[in-house]
Amino acid sequence: MVSLGCSKNRVDSEQILGMLKENGFEITNDEAQAEVIIVNTCGFINPAKEESIGAILEMAQHKKGGNCRLLVVTGCLSQRYPKELREELPEVDIFWGVKDKDGLVRKITEAVGGSYKCCSEDARIITTPSYSAYLRIADGCDNRCTYCAIPLIRGGKASVPMEKLVEEAQRLADSGVKELTLIAQDTSAYGTDLYGKPMLAELLRRIAKIDKLHWIRVLYSYPNTIDEELVDTMVADPKIVNYIDIPIQHIDPDMLKAMNRHGSAEHIREITDYIRRTAPDFILRTTVITGFPGETEGQFGHLTEFLKEHSFDRLGAFAYSQEDDTPAADMPNQIDEDVKQRRLKRIMSLQQGISLAYNKKRIGTVTEALVEQISGDIAYGRTYAEAPEVDGTVMFSIKNKGLKPGDFTMIKLTGAGPYDMEGEEI
Hints:
Blueprint: E1 2-3, H1 7-22, E2 36-41, H2 46-65, E3 70-75, H3 76-80, H4 82-88, E4 94-95, H5 101-111, E5 132-136, E6 138-139, H6 150-154, E7 158-159, H7 162-174, E8 179-183, H8 192-195, H9 200-207, E9 215-218, H10 228-236, E10 240-245, H11 253-258, H12 265-278, E11 283-290, H13 297-309, E12 314-319, H14 337-362, E13 366-375, E14 378-382, E15 394-397, E16 408-416, E17 421-425
Parallel strand pairs: 1-2, 2-3, 3-4, 5-8, 8-9, 9-10, 10-11, 11-12, 15-17
Antiparallel strand pairs: 6-7, 13-14, 13-16, 14-15, 16-17
């Protein structure tokens, strides 16, 4: 299985692998040995599409000189462009979208001469380190941002019933997971389709009762559905780390309107200010887009000034990608690519300074760290301030020779860069 794209896609891959294993398949990490190769694609923005096509072509080579009998392409790209891919990639035996995993597993099983059997609801093989896993609490999205193709690919929001999520979280904890990261296209709107109101705070309270979990983290929370109850819930329980990812995308009111971003610039300011007042050590992460159609230098300046005044500890930035069949793709005043990239570089340069200043303030503090790798007397890991896969690393000297990946230990932070930090075990 070659899994590309976001953590939500990773969960899809893990579920497909689990279902295949229940149908008698042996899973291997070596493509040269595999008789069946699956590429789970990403189709979100143009660079992701290019990466997906490259991965498909690379895996197709194993049909010529390897053991591969069946090449399968699934995921967002094949959901979005099934006809075009079939015409351009005859090497692929099966194209599948993002829905009906049972149907996909049945087709693969029967294609190699097997007999399909129905899979259990909890079929899943974790592909992250055994101590850390993702819990996808909803699929799809109702926000309909004008630049985004996700609703076209995955449909409207479909929250997973709370009881099922608590059961899955318990299973993951029983299997050795200590860090659980909640994900969705819009985590803070969890439950509005099932319960008539946002229920993320209640879900967090229930999951926090699971004894074996040590850290619970939340990513992909849209600002319009983040409220004081959610923040207070996170601050009140020590298991729920003081870290939240709030993709604002922009702050200029006209840009937010053009993007069809729900909520206002005023609410973004209010909720970030409330978080800072409530818990000064709370980590705020965000994402912004540069070069959206019609973005003027003044509007871009509005964004940079906001980031200076309401600084985020972590930030990801993307140049606007003109996506097929989205409203923004047909908007006038498309921005030249060189302007998008220039603005992107300015944002990232600004953020480097902000992140470095924040990390320097942490020097001398004592905090808990999750060990992820050990090399001699040096360990590499993360504190509550670093989310898996998207943030930096903490390198620290260790005294306890019995430490192993997945353990927690207390460290003192001694050095800082814009992304990574250094420390020593105490």
